[in-house]
What does this fold into?
Amino acid sequence: MYFLADDERKQLLRYYLPKARELGVAEELRGWNWHQPPLEPVYGAVLALYEVAGRYCPSGRDVFLRRVQGIRGEPNLAMIQGAVLHDILADLLVAAKRAIYLYGTGNYRAICEALEKYAPAPPLPSTGLSEAEAADLLGKMEILCSFERARVLSRLQEVLARHPYIGEDSLANLTIPVVLEQKLNGAFLGLSGNLSTDAFIFSEPMILDLKFGEPRDFHRLGTTGYALVMEALYEFPVNLGCIVYGEFRGDRLIVKRDIHIISDELRQWFIEERDEKARFVAEEIDPGLAGDCPATCPFYRVCRPGG
Ligand code: SF4
It folds into this structure.
């Protein structure tokens, strides 16, 4: 899912990277300037990154309910499926890295066998899914694993064929050149101390975010938030984001990637969202009902008890 296709890679190298350098970013909007406006957090409230970046509730009442009223929403089916699919993908990739380190380049057949044997376990009853939903999800997990397994195996063979003297560490890095679930402390920017990016590529710093739902314009706020946090922590520029959309059509997995520049506009939008939602929490302001509440909203029964 996180490995770019040849044409996307070309687009990245020939268009997005040079374009990002050409456009530049206003210095005050770089994450390393977290200690001064406009990045400096104005309110004391600490928010999760998904709370800032998620605009599923247009009024931001979900954040007020969770943080001020202490109400936990009921995760909807898409949220449960998304979490399970994220976990299984990360688990498969980590298992592949582990097999590389365990068996080494001298025993690459054992690496391939370990990957071929990898099979997802059915979703746990604690997910609260019905039998039919769990079976449907397991089917999707198998499709996802089969897709990713084939890609990892192909990359592994390719790297081994090109580099006859390669060692395990380099093989792991070239085969799976992403850090999964990288933990980040967002405290400099008024965000949670336990953030986690889906994946990060170091060779050309790019934040990757995996989604299994419909594309929404605000999804880019997530990659923007992580880019700002990375800049604040490590003081190097992160100019690019990529949202990977996975869609299941029958027994096929369709993958689309939205590569984008973490522009000044996105950075400003993220800061505005953060400040507005942090104000709701710090000053205990109820922003009121959104005009158009989706029935799948985790807080629907709280906000609209009459349905
Ligand atoms: S039910 Fe409506 S107002 Fe309440 S959190 Fe959901 S979208 Fe927002």
The chain has a mean pLDDT of 94. The pocket of iron/sulfur cluster is lined by residues 57, 59, 61-62, 289-290, 293, 297, 299-300, 303-304 (CB under 6 Å). Residues 131-162 form the longest helix (32 residues).
